[in-house]
Amino acid sequence: MEITNISEYEAIAKKKLPKMIFDYYASGAEDQWTLQENRNAFSRILFRQRILIDVSKIDISTTVLGFKISMPIMIAPTAMQKMAHPDGECATARAASSSGTIMTLSSWATSSVDEVASTGPGIRFFQLYVYKDRKVVEQLVRRAERAGFKAIVLTADTPQLGRRESDIKNRFNLPSHLTLKNFEGLEISKMYETNDSGLASYVSSQIDRTLSWKDVKWLQSITSMPILVKGVMNAEDTLLAIETGVAGIIVSNHGARQLDYIPATISCLEEVVKAAQGRVPVFLDGGVRRGTDVFKALALGAAGIFIGRPVLYSLAVDGEAGVRNVLKMLRDEFELTMTLAGCVSLKTITRNHIITEEDMIRNSMSRL
Ligand SMILES: Cc1cc2nc3c(=O)[nH]c(=O)nc-3n(C[C@H](O)[C@H](O)[C@H](O)COP(=O)(O)O)c2cc1C
Questions:
Q1: S-S: 87 plus which of 91, 323, 361, 363, CB 3.0-4.6 Å?
Q2: Mean pLDDT score of the chain
Q3: Using one digit for the tens of pLDDT, what is the confidence trace for 40-69?
Q4: CB of 78 closer than 6 A to ligand 1?
Q5: How far is the CA of 142 from the centre of ligand 1 (A)?
Q6: Whether residue 283 has its Cβ less than 6 Å from ligand 1
Q7: Which ligand 1 atom sits closest to the C-alpha of 77?
């Protein structure tokens, strides 16, 4: 059957992957309310299209941290991609590069920064988890820098792993033929079987729960790479991030895998954008599955979006070609959305092109 949208990869990947692996990729925390809400919230935002605009030429290219990319659609860091496909992160890197966009490599990748760099040219960011052992962190950041990575994405929402119940039931563990390649030769490249989630135990023993804004300053002192903070969900943390001097913010709830009952990212975006006041770019991830979602995020002020699970599912189904197809389908849908909404470049997308639930309530109140 022909695949006609990026969500269709999920069901095919489910048939193909061992249950433990599919569940690890798919699941959210606890009741998975936020997991559904990340999608549902997009469906409550509607369009206000403009008509009779010359849309014969559409430009969707943009610039992120000074790097020109083909579209405002990028790849979020997702761990352990070789569980999906033997080519893992290297296939994703090639697909991103040939699509002219940015890939973010996870700290917990099953391919190292050097292996990913050796796939050829491409703009790549490195996602950082801060370990208790700061020497390990320093070495890792230096290696990423030497391998030509362009920015650090600091994940700030994971002092402990969210409770993902299928991982507990499945006793999730990294298959024994794989390692966390960025830590090769170190004990922390492996995960051990426990009587719940092996990853949750790994995080409890290795990740630094004391991490705070002063450590972002420390990180700035050991690298010249710009730092994006991932996991900002409100105005208060936006202001602290800007005060700390970060280069950008990613509105993210970790694909609904950390704190359940946190709102959808698209519902928090405008608050963050307003607080940022254009001082730093604001990006978003979480539940983006359609070109219309990309447009909605940009209309609410995002400078670009990242996708997580669709990359894993398409990688599982068709390796590099699958990821390329996901990026192409999302790009084509986004371009079509712009055409039908009457926008010719990213700059022409405005807040007036959409209507949110809050707008509708405000409008009906004002009519009373
Ligand atoms: C299987 C899986 C693994 C992930 N691994 C990481 C990770 O290593 N580091 C990180 O910062 N975020 C990680 N994330 C979160 C993603 O970067 C991103 O925030 C999320 O997947 C976006 O939502 P989406 O999957 O709905 O597109 C992971 C998400 C998934 C689904």
A1: 91
A2: 97
A3: 999 999 999 999 999 999 999 999 999 999
A4: yes
A5: 23
A6: no
A7: 17
